[in-house]
């Protein structure tokens, strides 16, 4: 009989320790489950409706090609793997241009820059801007398509974000000065990825090879 009393006492004591813990556990667990459920419901309500490939493709339907890659090859002397302008979508003769560079992993510089984190070298981003400016200048008086031109200087370059494979680099250049006698040009330029500035420069100069 004494043994039964002792066992009953131990059982009630254990329950006394377990019950508060169980109560606290329930207090914390139940609301947490509800919170996550609410968040999931909220995310579902606020999530944008899925879009088809056609809808996404149509986002650029108003952007028209002015110079195709074949047209560019008739103006610039550059060729793969150093032709860095895929097409021109805005062009004002002798003034400005907007060009597109589609960045892909199969470009050779990505094998070493960098093997585990491919990033388009900043100098190539500037080179792409110079080539776009060259498309404008090589169609101006005093120059001719296909001519070779050299970098003479660049000032005020600022890189704002990495450019990686899969990005579409949208570039814009404006010709500030053009000396047709000596074949020297001064221009400004900037590039964007997804509407955000990737690189900008205050001034670049280049000269036609003599």
From TrEMBL:
It comes from Rhizochromulina marina. GO terms for cellular component: cytoplasm; membrane. It is found in: Cytoplasm. Involved in unsaturated fatty acids biosynthesis. Catalyzes the dehydration of short chain beta-hydroxyacyl-ACPs and long chain saturated and unsaturated beta-hydroxyacyl-ACPs. Its EC number is 4.2.1.59. Keywords: Cytoplasm, Lipid A biosynthesis, Lipid biosynthesis, Lipid metabolism, Lyase, Signal. InterPro entries: FabA_FabZ, FabZ, HotDog_dom_sf. One of its GO terms (molecular function) is (3R)-hydroxyacyl-[acyl-carrier-protein] dehydratase activity. It holds the Pfam family FabA. Its main location: cytoplasm. It is an enzyme of class 4 (lyase). This is 3-hydroxyacyl-[acyl-carrier-protein] dehydratase. Residues 1-16 form the signal peptide. GO terms for biological process: fatty acid biosynthetic process; lipid A biosynthetic process.
């Amino acid at each position: 009989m004494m043994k039964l009393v002792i066992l009953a006492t131990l059982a009630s004591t254990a329950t006394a320790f377990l019950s508060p813990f169980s109560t606290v556990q329930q207090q914390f667990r139940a609301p947490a489950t509800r919170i996550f459920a609410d968040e999931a419901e909220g995310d579902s309500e606020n999530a944008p409706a899925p879009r088809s490939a056609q809808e996404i493709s149509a986002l650029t339907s108003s952007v028209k090609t002015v110079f195709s890659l074949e047209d560019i090859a008739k103006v610039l002397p550059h060729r793969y793997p150093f032709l860095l302008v895929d097409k021109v979508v805005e062009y004002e003769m002798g003034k400005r241009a907007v060009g597109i560079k589609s960045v892909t992993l199969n470009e050779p510089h990505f094998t070493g820059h960098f093997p585990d984190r491919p990033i388009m070298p900043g100098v190539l981003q500037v080179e792409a801007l110079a080539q776009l400016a060259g498309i404008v200048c090589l169609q101006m008086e005093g120059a001719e398509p296909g001519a070779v031109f050299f970098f003479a200087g660049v000032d005020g370059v600022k890189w704002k974000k990495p450019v990686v494979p899969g990005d579409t680099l949208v570039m814009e250049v404006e010709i500030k000065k053009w000396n047709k006698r000596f074949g020297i040009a001064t221009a400004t330029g900037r590039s964007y990825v997804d509407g955000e500035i990737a690189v900008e420069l205050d001034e670049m100069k280049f000269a036609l090879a003599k």
